[in-house]
Amino acid sequence: MGSAQRDRRIAALVPWWPLLAVLLLAAALRLSTLGLQSFWYDEAFTPVHVLRASLGATLHNVVHTENTPPLWYVFEWGFSRVLGTGVVALRLLSALAGIATVAVAWAIGSALAGRRVAIVTATLVAVNPLFVWYSQEARAYALFVFTASLALLCFLRAMRAPTNRRLAEFALTASLALLTHYFAVFLLIPMALWLLWLAIAGGWSEESAMPPARAGGIAKSDDCGGAQLTPRERTSNPKNLARVLCALALPGLVGLVLIPLILAQGGHGTQWIGEWALASRLEAIPQYYLTGYSGSSLGHGIEALVALVSLVGVLYGLWSTLTRREERGALIVLTITAAAVLTPVLLALLGADYLAPRNLVAAMVPLSALLAIVIAAQRTGRIGMALAGLLALTFLVLGVDVNLSPRLQRGDWSGVACVLRSAQPKHVITTVELGSAPLEYYLSGLNNLHAGQSVSVTEIDETGYAPLRPDAERAPVRGFHLTERRDINGLIVYRFTSNVPVTVSQRTLLRAVVAEEGRPEALVPTASSGKTL
Fold first, then answer.
1. Residues 293-303: pLDDT tens digits?
2. pTM for the model
3. Would you list the DSSP string of 385-441?
């Protein structure tokens, strides 16, 4: 009897081994190198300027310093109270969200077109370098991807049968997505319109609002993955419409509540978006998906190679023709992806320009599902799965390359801080804005030197990204001379020293920042004496 029970348990686990394998791969990619890269500006900004001992003070800082809804900061505050504010501790929430998204992606693929698509969708999400990148970043993006994916899954289930429970699940997950990132609205609008259209046009029968009938543990459904409907049953159902409207009321209310927060935040820190040419940002959207956040360093050749693999798979899938269920699944995720990407593009063209490619990261989950449906369609057979495997392999290789190549990683501000720890007691650090928060994180006790202030120092440390200004090696102030030049994985440190203290103004220091691009800042130790000129 014990042997028979064991055999039944093994048989029950066999269908799930691909998901377990993909989850282990996703965990390995995200957790094994979670602390490998330094914090960059946005990540360091959170512990330096946002997180405080009390939740109330933290939320106050979210309102006055950030441009994101509060949910991620609430979770991060909780993590920091337990685990501290180390690099791994602050990135752990994103890593866990990224791993959980893989399981959700499996369920999305299964709901759309079955097991084959579930395997491919989960695998693409697990290894795509863009998803791995944001799963290792202490910002809201990985949680945004997770909550938006949960909303998509609940939407697909509600499409099949608008039960009160399924619609409530969609309402809850949609609200969580909105509370994580404002761009969730562009994903949720097409989902809401789909549900309204099905309710108004009679896309559900009376029976479809009840739990699906089961035969042998498998829900009876038609080729489209929904309840079987006869032409007579395809009539508008006021009960379904009322259920949908009630479900949409919750995320609608959350959206209204967030409007005052959006106005109070006023787009903090989004000036860089307008300074980045729109054409370049549009080019970066497919580039991010194909080669990852830092993929531009690889060149257009690698991007074209990954695009070619994707294109071959898509063309072969279309040539093999899709089933009715696959066609409908592809149409659903195509609609959602297009709306989530094209709506912000249209708004940018109309003048409301908040289009940053990374704000579209959650739209890449339905895009992955779309690729999985077409490439791994049932009629593509083994060839389709092989092409999907080749695409996943290219993603995996690119992701591993990021972990092995400092040129593809975040700026090594931790390495810069190690060099600056040997500075003389009376010193000042000049840097670009992107370096200020990381240096304040890694070197405690730094303050920003404000306009009109001066400081007496014997050492000036100039830091920044290449390219450098032409006269970078020239001493910024008379009496100083260059004593050291360091290149730390693309970050430059120039150390100038003087035998006697020299009083230097903030204005003079900012003119001497080594980097050509970026707003300059000057940082001084708390103990340094400064005076207003």
1. 887 777 788 88
2. 0.90
3. HHHHHHHHHHHHHHHHHHHH-GGGS---HHHHHHHHTTS-SSEEEEEEHHHHHHHHH
